[in-house]
Amino acid sequence: MTTMIRCISPVDGRVYAERPALGPGEADAVVARARAAQRDWLAVPLDERRRLVLAGIAALNAMKDVVVEEIAWQMGRPVRYGGEFGGVNERATYMAGIAEEALAPLVAQDDALFTRMIEREAVGVVFVVAPWNYPYLTAFNTIVPALIAGNAVVLKHASQTLLVGERIAEALARGGIPEGVFQNIVLDHAGTERLIANRSFGFVNFTGSVGGGQAIERAAAGTFTGLGLELGGKDPGYVMEDADLDWAVDVLMDGAMYNAGQCCCGIERIYVHERHFDDFVQRAVAWAGGLRLGNPFDAATTLGPMANVRFARLVRDQVADAVARGARPLIERQHHPADDGESAYVMPQILVNVDHSMSVMRDETFGPVVGIMPVKDDEEALRLMNDSPFGLTASLWTKDPDRALALGRRIETGTVFLNRADYVDPACTWTGCKDTGRGGSMSVLGYQAVTRPRSYHLRKAKP
Ligand code: NAP
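Above: the input record for the complex with NAP. Below: its predicted structure, written as tokens.
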């Protein structure tokens, strides 16, 4: 029996798109096609591969209007934000620009006696399993370096953003990527895990939840397939006593609320030096007062619905649990009539009187909610920041970069930000620790995930 994969729009609850999941035979045929196409693709010079990938990105840019509208229907992001083109273009251009350097052989010796070096070799077929929250960015993070390095790519996108893979395939084909080199497939979880367990791929990049990452790791067990697992977060901000308060409020609150809080590196908890706590909270509430929750197609909307009512339910449950345990919510429902308490439209919320016994300060919320706590010094802030099962990013606010660096080195995290938050820098590896998973995308290291080393020890003369 064919399984149908459905995208239920959070905008109005209707089935926006549905596609049949591939059966085992069809999925195996996709992998076989990818393997065959990769052999020819690898023979294409690096410069030409890079040109074709960037032409695909340009073709996607030309589809901007339809892409922006589809994102709003599929996962609720307001159209005023214009899709993910800024980030996609920045990252693709950067990754294309460093390809030669990242893929160059490491030569230890090259003279009359020896050539000793390490080359990077494409792994073959790369499988990308992508989430819905930044459906283009998260997918391209791996697709771009994988293709440029000479791999074929198979993409399985999230059900919530079912049409994104089709758009990416269309754009890359328009850009001139040969048939079979990039394929989008629709699969259910069992079909996805079956392909991985069957050693279909040289590398799998999974971006998503901790539970999903664990399932992928189990599927790959014993196959020795390389895995990149980019999972959840509970990212902290820490505002020190010398911070620029307005700047900190603006960036941290945006980091907490943008995309309805559905950012892996969104700010979910804020620790403020006790001297500024009341002031910070007051300004944060004023900042949140500027948000407009509503239909993402309305130009005035700055906060759309969450991607799915089941995510909204989790957020409401966390807030209710925190309030029952003594947390104080500072945003009143009457300011956000679009939130009926049941739909995917969830009002922003700021919680004080919170502590780490509450789920909202421990578990990933992935919604427009932030808890704020006062701290007396760096040591207390450090203890609280590290009191988390996750480690993706930490955002420090001070005028003293040396202090930030020293403190940053003691935080269990993938990235330390100073006076910045919720940003993926393509020059810095995107990585995490603890339940955030392992591996790294972006930067020169991002090319290592999609290639394997091959050593050459060539003795050229008899000793
Ligand atoms: P998810 O439910 O784990 O799904 C992610 C992708 O994996 C989807 O394509 C999903 O397919 C598939 N999938 C999930 N479970 C699977 C399984 N057992 N077997 C095979 N495939 C499976 O995550 P999400 O809700 O889409 O995304 C939100 C999560 O992603 C958050 O936790 C967020 O923090 C994390 N995230 C992390 C990063 C990072 O860089 N660290 C970036 C973005 C998001 P279906 O959609 O069909 O279920």
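Notes for the reader.
The longest strand covers residues 114-122.
The chain has a mean pLDDT of 98.
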